[in-house]
């Protein structure tokens, strides 16, 4: 193979990797043409947002080898950032200008707490929804990866940290809305454009963010830094012997993943019209792991589709009379089956099928390969 | 040529067992030095000392004027010391080209490696390297699909990609067929001069084929040093290998 030919092969590999992203995003944007029902559109938008959350886990788990069981923590922080800003917008209507959010009035809070103040600016809230989760992840990652904590201990620490934040939010009812979360929000309005949870604008906003997240994550995995992160997943010690600072790379991918799930969290508040402690709950966080495994954690598109399909199925099952009690069992069985028989998830299945088709259609390729090997052997 | 790598009075013990006991050895720039000796002689430990995996209890290691025994593993790697371990350690899920790309660790910082053009810039380098190690056809294949010999060559290629001035290898031909061993000998022959190589090896035929100077170790010390014929004739060496059928069958 001449150098020119092999770089062409590299290019076609790039094409083969980006094609699924383009196709999936095109389908997502076309959905409103098929689904002529605002209620259904809102439901699908919700699944798409969960898809973004799962992309973020695929990045840290599938590519970085960091099984973050507290992935929903960043998601929850994002959703509260958005909810706080949208709640403050309702103050003039609910309690008069200069007043407080309604739940604070009920809890006899005298002044707006200091950490609520900056959320009067929507721009700040939008930035915070992404930057705060990234900063929290950087801090947490610094402690985890600088001390060379690995494997199951990373999962335990991330899960425990999320549970702590969850409990703090529930406990501090007068400042966070507690168990009820932050409800009764204003509509998101950016540059005069209103995003009604059941409107097309919101759906397209979500679809754009799906595209953006997939592309950012894809660009990262294709970069050299992304390659080094995958090498760390395969063989951490070996990477260190090349002179790389392994912890710095792990912290980076951990923070990037948190930023993307923060974005998803903000969108979730817009689509659901409230923020709740369940958004950073254990159940959601573990569900993300299942979606990611089912879709294929080493494929961004696979993880995304896994979330949309399985979350959609969860929705359908939990609403159907037959599976009202047992849908969690069905989900558990699905997870076990995938782990046992499809370690690379649905994406691995699709890739295998695609390779099978290509190799059957182009038998000549197999011949040149074996010639190459024969020459190798006789050398 | 002057001394490039110098080990002085190195001692190290594991739970009271003296793996190295006052080892002295110096290697010149561009040399291919073979390290042989009976089991437990301390050959692998000597490599561990150089690359920083094990710290000496006594003694100094200097490489190109830098004191290695004070540095951390990744710092030693940045000074230009590359290590190939006995168990092949390549990144199995990455392709051959990607493995070589990761090994090109000239700019180790995260931000420097986020740029898009970093990988395109190294492509020509990687293709040259693949040719050197005979893996041009396998560039886009995952490393998991390589044969044992190919995996070893890939790992040697990764050390070259790393731009390691000093390459340490622990039994590179273990488990290889005769043909693969011959190819490896050719490869090492092409590397010497440009790189300084220290190779731990059991296969005496291989050692005689590639080595300029052979260092024989025994009980944590240097026993003899010289060309293949010289060490074979050495009476101390004959005694050390007594009972194992002589040095040729070690």
List the helices and strands and how they pair.
The complex is a heterodimer of chains A (379) and B (250).
Chain A: H1 3-34, H2 38-63, H3 71-94, H4 102-106, H5 122-146, H6 152-171, H7 173-176, E1 188-190, E2 193-195, H8 200-222, H9 224-234, H10 236-240, H11 246-272, H12 282-295, H13 300-319, H14 327-341, H15 345-361, H16 363-378
Antiparallel strand pairs in A: 1-2
Chain B: E1 3-14, E2 17-28, E3 32-36, H1 43-51, E4 58-63, E5 66-67, H2 73-79, E6 81-84, H3 96-103, H4 117-121, H5 123-132, H6 148-161, E7 166-170, H7 178-191, E8 196-200, H8 204-210, E9 213-218, E10 221-226, H9 228-233, H10 235-240
Parallel strand pairs in B: 3-8, 3-9, 6-7, 7-8
Antiparallel strand pairs in B: 1-2, 1-4, 4-5, 9-10
General description of the model:
The complex is a heterodimer of chains A (379) and B (250). Chain A has helices at residues 3-34, 38-63, 71-94, 102-106, 122-146, 152-171, 173-176, 200-222, 224-234, 236-240, 246-272, 282-295, 300-319, 327-341, 345-361, 363-378, and strands at 188-190, 193-195. By secondary structure, chain A is an all-alpha fold. Chain A has a two-stranded antiparallel sheet. Residues 1-6 and 365-379 of chain A have low confidence and may be disordered. Helix content of chain B is 34%, strand content 25%. Chain B contains ten helices and ten strands. In chain B, α3 packs parallel to α6 (148-161) and α5 packs across α6 (148-161).
Q: What is the strand arrangement across the widest sheet of chain A?
A: 1-2
Strand content of chain A: under 5%
Report the principal-axis shape of chain A. Answer: globular
Tally of alpha and pi helices of chain B: 10
Summed over residues and divided by their number, the pLDDT of chain A gives a mean of 89
Largest interface: A-B, 39 and 43 residues
CATH homologous superfamily heading of chain B: P-loop containing nucleotide triphosphate hydrolases
Domains of chain A, number: 2
Low-confidence stretches of chain B: none
The gyration radius over C-alpha positions of chain B equals 18 Å
Gross morphology of chain B is: globular
The first-level CATH class of chain B is given as Alpha Beta
